[in-house]
Amino acid sequence: MPWELVAALIFGLVFLFILGGISVAVSLGGVAILTAYILLGSAGSLAYASWNIATKFILVAIPLFIFMGELLLRGGMSDRLYTGSTALLGRIPGSLLHANIVSCSIFAAISGSSVATAATIGTVAIPELKKRGYEHKIVLGSLAAGGTLGILIPPSIAMIIYGSITGQSIGRLFIAGIIPGIMLALLFMGYIVVRVMTRPQLAPTYEKIPIKRRILDIIAVWPVLLIMFAVLGGIYLGVTTPTEAAAIGAIMALAFSLAYRKLTWASLRQCLRTTVKTSTMIMFLVVGAQLLVSILSSERIPDNILAWVESLAISPLAILILIYIVYLFLGCFMDGTAMMLVTLPIVFPIIKALGFDPIWFGVALVILVEMALLTPPVGMNAYVIHGISPDHSLTEVFIGIIPFFVMMVVGLAIITAFPVIATWLPATMMKVGG
Questions:
Q1: Separation between Cα atoms, residue 48 and residue 38, nearest integer Å
Q2: Structure confidence by residue, pLDDT tens digits, 349-383
Q3: Per the domain annotation, does 31 fall within a domain?
Q4: Which range is most confident: 9-23, 28-42, 219-233, 409-423?
Q5: CB of 140 closer than 8 Å to CB of 400
Q6: Per-residue pLDDT for 344 more than 80?
Q7: Rg (CA), the chain
Q8: Structural domain range at position 259
């Protein structure tokens, strides 16, 4: 059977299953098993592929980072984070809107999940902003966009998945996301300053806080910052692997939650329940994707597509931009993680063959996945923010997101033009496993 027909059959079935409402993990794994029986007469070869990916030590970091984020959410530290950010940024035009972005950025550095970041900060911020009379579209847009930083600023579950599928260092991917993540946060904040200065009624003047209270509110953030520096510092200095850093962060989050007497047995059970459910879902996705990769590789489909791409008389940059456009299109219909898992077996070999840095592309891909979290009709962060603020329509959320989405396009263009933004910091870090 011609490879073009095999590729069309495999990807056609995957997209048909997904659009039919079948879960992504079942779609990926089911199509792989079905194709194996059709082409090979047996699916026995897939057993080793599933075992090989499921037993990777680095994947242990996923439940640990999720557990750490859950503890910080239910242990009361997210409230301290938002209050401290508000005290720090109250005098900047747009005041509490900047607190949304900064709080999301810091929580992103201890969470690894965009949806969790948006939900956590949104739950704290929306009632406060509504009470003070902020224009709701820019509030909802800033929270949805700020939440996307959860998978760019490390630790990032998306980067763990990317690294496990492509064989890249998770530690270097984590460190590579720091500067681009800060850059995106600054772009968001820059837009807010310009918009509020041209239309001051969007953000009422923030009430003055006594200097003593302001200092105490800022100092109260120290447990969150300590966890962040322990996790990222250990990875950067080569002291810990990402999995070890995740374990340290989870233990510290548990200790602080207990010390502040915010964690009850009921909330601890909820933390564990959410961790198990989310981790199981991600593991099924990863295993399903690996089964599909195994079938594609056995039929040499990535090699054939790569040869076809290399035969095209167009520049590597033009091919890269085409890949960006495909991801932006897919992001309108697929969850970001699913989009990444379905496409990486084909796209990653092309990226390597064209000479692009795999670590840099991991950052660019995560930004594209972030953008998928904002685009209708599937944008998960938009639905999360709408769920927190149901008195505003989903259309209003998406309208509020548009300018922040444009800022993300600008950020993607910047790191494409200047890849060193993503590659410089990982090049300076100490070597460590993972």
A1: 19
A2: 899 988 999 999 999 999 998 888 888 766 778 88
A3: no
A4: 409-423
A5: yes
A6: yes
A7: 22
A8: 57-428
Based on the number of CB atoms within 10 Å of its own CB, is 241 exposed (0-12), middle (13-18) or buried (19 or more)?
Answer: buried
Burial of residue 253 (number of CB atoms within 10 Å: 0-12, 13-18, 19+) = buried
- Separation between Cα atoms, residue 113 and residue 337, nearest integer Å: 11
Provide the number of structural domains found in the chain. Answer: 1
Sign of CA dihedral 35, 39, 44, 49: negative
Exposure of 34 in the CB half-sphere (CA atoms within 13 A): 14
CB 69, CB 303: distance < 8 Å: no
pLDDT score of 27: 84
> Hey, what are 372's tokens?
């998928």
* Cβ atoms of 382 and 398 closer than 8 Å: yes
**HSE of 187, CA atoms in CB hemisphere, 13 A:** 22
The 3-state secondary structure of 75-142, one letter per residue? CCHHHHHHHHHHHHHCCCCCHHHHHHHHHHHHHHCCCCCHHHHHHHHHHHHHHHHHHCCCCHHHHHHH
* pLDDT greater than 60 at residue 433: no
Calpha distance 25→37 (Å, rounded): 19
Residue 201's contacts (CB-CB under 8 Å, 6 or more residues apart) are: 135
